[in-house]
């Protein structure tokens, strides 16, 4: 059954016009009045709904029963990532949403190839939020992870109230699996080339724990997803090291 995110608070008995994106999708699917779909507003659970009107510029639906089903991970993993370049960040956001990330913080690190600021950064944030919404529509999540505004890594790090974990290339770090558990964690991962030494040192000085994913070197967009899968899905075991 088609699933769509609707930012308006939903309740049984509410009739509303779908937002432009879902409305276009319903039109492409050629749904007709009376056809069923599923809506979620990100506030928990999902709702059955039925199409009541199909117009050229408006699609209206009637919200039916609420199903309180949740499909969230037992641990909230907040990803803070040095943005990889080109379409790799899109792919990272999509898969992180599917795997259960609680939030995604794009960071501008010393070695970042992708440099964003001002209006361009705002447009990218809005685009990535849309990618996350589409991923949740597809995978069944009813809570959409927030894609936060782009920040310089050092400024973001200085504002953090509590330390988390750093994916590190340095020797002597513990495996990430040793830190699996708990109910909430922030995971910091670098861009292409990894975090600079000064960035890792600054995080470590604030209590962040460096961890590794094993003997292999993963790409900047792959490493945080492998770590997220281990933490959020509970697939503890040997892994790979990210760059």
Note the beta-strand portion.
25-35%
- What number is the mean pLDDT? 91
**Spans of at least 5 consecutive residues with low confidence:** 235-243
What is the string of helix and strand elements?
EEHEEEEHEHEEHEEEHEEHE
State the domain count: 2
Counted beta strands = 15
**In angstroms, what is the radius of gyration?**
20 Å
Cα separation of the termini: 39 Å
Query: The CATH topology of the largest domain is what?
Result: Alpha/beta knot
Secondary structure class reads alpha/beta
The largest β sheet comes out as: 8 strands, parallel
Summarize the structure.
With 243 residues, the chain is of the alpha/beta class.
SSE diagram, text form:
Layout (H helix, E strand, L loop, with lengths): L2 E3 L9 E3 L2 H9 L7 E5 L5 E9 L4 E9 L8 E7 L5 H12 L3 E6 L9 H22 L6 E2 L3 E2 H6 L6 E3 L6 E2 L8 E6 L7 H9 L3 E4 L4 E2 L4 H11 L7 E2 L1
Parallel strand pairs: 1-3, 6-7, 6-12, 7-8, 7-9, 10-12, 10-13, 11-13, 14-15
Antiparallel strand pairs: 2-5, 3-4, 4-5
Helix pairs in contact: 2-3, 2-6
Task: Kindly describe this structure.
By secondary structure, this protein is α/β, with parallel strands linked by helices. It folds into 2 domains: 3-67, Ribosomal Protein L25, Chain P (Beta Barrel); 76-242, 3-Layer(aba) Sandwich (Alpha/beta knot), CATH 3.40.1280. Helix content is 28%, strand content 27%. It is built from 6 helices and 15 strands. The strands form 3 sheets. Strands 6, 7, 8, 9, 10, 11, 12 and 13 form an 8-stranded parallel beta sheet that branches. Helix 2 crosses helix 3 and helix 2 packs parallel to helix 6. The longest helix has 22 residues, at 118-139. The two termini are 39 Å apart. Mean pLDDT is 91; it is low at 235-243.
């Amino acid at each position: 059954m088609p699933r769509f995110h609707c930012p308006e608070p939903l309740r049984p008995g509410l009739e509303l016009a779908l937002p432009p994106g879902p409305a276009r999708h319903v039109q492409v699917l050629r749904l007709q009045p009376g056809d069923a779909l599923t809506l979620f507003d990100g506030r928990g659970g999902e709702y059955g709904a039925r199409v009541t009107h199909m117009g050229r510029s408006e699609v209206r639906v009637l919200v039916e029963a609420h199903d309180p089903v949740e499909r969230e991970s037992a641990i909230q993993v907040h990803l803070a990532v040095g943005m990889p370049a080109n379409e790799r960040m899109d792919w990272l956001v999509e898969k992180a949403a599917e795997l259960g990330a609680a939030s995604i913080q794009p960071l501008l690190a010393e070695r970042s190839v992708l440099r964003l600021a001002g209006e361009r950064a705002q447009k990218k944030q809005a685009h990535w939020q849309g990618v996350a919404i589409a991923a949740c529509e597809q995978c069944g999540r009813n809570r959409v992870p927030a894609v936060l505004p782009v920040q310089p890594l050092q400024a973001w790090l200085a504002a953090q109230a509590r330390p988390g974990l750093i994916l590190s290339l340095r020797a002597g770090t513990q495996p990430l699996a040793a830190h699996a558990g708990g109910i909430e964690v922030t995971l910091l991962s670098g861009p292409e080339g990894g975090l600079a030494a000064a960035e890792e040192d600054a995080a470590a000085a604030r209590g962040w724990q460096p961890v590794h994913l094993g003997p292999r070197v993963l790409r900047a967009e792959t490493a945080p997803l492998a770590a997220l899968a281990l933490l959020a899905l509970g697939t503890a075991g040997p892994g790979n090291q990210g760059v």
